[in-house]
Amino acid sequence: MSRTGTGDPEWVAGLHEDITDRKNNELLLLGYKDLLERTNDAANIGVWELDLETKKVYCSAVIQKLANLPSGHHPSLEEAITFFREGRSTNMITLAIKDAIQKGIGFDVELQVVTQEKGILWTRNIGISEFKNGQCNRLYGFFQDIDEKTRANKELVFKEEQFRKIFEYAYVGMALVGLDGKWLRANPSLCEFLGYSEQELLTFKFQDITHPDDLDMDLQLVSEILAGSRESYQLEKRYVHKSKKIVWTLLSVSLVRSGHGRPLHFVSQILDITKRKLAEKKVSDLLEVTKEHNARLENFAHIVSHNLRSHSSNLLMLLDLIKHQYPETANNDYFPLLSTAVTNLEDTIGHLNEITVLGGTTQTKLAALNLRRYVKKAIHGIKASLLELDGTVVNHTETTIEIEVVPAYLESILLNLLTNAIKYSDPQRAPQIIIRSETTADHILLSIQDNGLGLDLEAHGDKIFGMYKTFHYHPHARGVGLFMVKNQIEAMGGKIQVESRVNIGTTFTLYFKNAKN
Hints:
This protein is α+β, with helices and mostly antiparallel strands. The chain has helices at 9-42, 61-66, 77-81, 88-103, 147-169, 188-194, 198-201, 206-209, 212-227, 274-325, 335-358, 371-381, 383-389, 407-423, 457-460, 481-491, and strands spanning 45-51, 56-59, 107-115, 119-132, 135-145, 173-177, 183-186, 232-240, 246-257, 263-272, 367-370, 392-396, 402-405, 432-439, 443-450, 495-501, 505-514.
């Protein structure tokens, strides 16, 4: 007789125990399920399952939230695929699901999805298929938002690619250098101007090819970076080329650290400045030579001005004695010319002495002088040449004009231009010189016009004021006069212009500072 009655105490106790165990197991499973869901939510992982009979996709809350689906809504497979970005992502997920169902091939792919709240996101999609009797009876998987991590990785890859291209194709030399000074990487530009291949260079430390005189400073700066007292440094230093020649560079160095602040390696940018340094040395040598020449010229000017002053004083004294002892000679037509010439020589020597004393302070030593007076004085200086060639000078300068000049420079300019007019006069006609003045708001203009041989400005216009440039034959031509004129007028803040026609004549126009401004 079976014990099925409700009054059997053992049977009742056993039934109660079975029911209690079943409830405990159900509660345990619910706890595991809740824990799993909480874990997935925290990791931003969604769970999905495809019902192969209804073609419905059952989604967890994470997926529904991303897709902006109503709670409890389970989309069709076609609707779920549209959740992925059209193109590569939709094609890949479609093919992956097909292979999983037909061939049992699981998938784990990173694809882009389109969300309403966050736009386009990168996601990880895992699919697992179960087969029974050769047929897929279940397909499920996981879905994770990995956008932040993926974009960070892609940004890192992009930056690494940018650095690689900059490193490879940069005009400036670039290198990665170990903490011990060993070359780790070197770009083509660096290898080219040091003469080594990258493989050769990587067998050295930078100390091995640094010029000995520059090594201590370089090592000191490296120590300061490693000690944390500086972030980077820059200095001019020399390397020894493979051929043993010296290469001048501008070196910039910075330290790369790990995320924990541990020093990893140095990044060096190395610009070849050898040509610049050679040019600087050439200029320095030239300046030294110029300084020496200037010192010699200054000594020469002192000696000449002193000695010539003695001779000119003697000449004036002799002329004065001749005039008193032999008064009849003073009535000679040439005696006044000789007397004026010697007086002008005395003045010129005095001005030369002033220039020597000035020593390069031209702009601060300008004096206001009467222009007509100095023009007349210059005309007297060429009187003998005019008489010889039967030439004439017409002086149209205004009587009251004053200009800001250095007296010796003005004398030199006028004498050079007037003697040039005589020197390059047309042998077929008597020289004629016309001198005019004009006043503007800022300048006094002085033009000296002649009827001489003239110049071809199209052929020689850019060379007229060059040193040692001559354009007509003359036994005394040296090509220095016009060079001096241009430099002297510009030293006084003025300028010179020229107009000329071959066989017609030339006009030089001088621009002086207006003393009234």
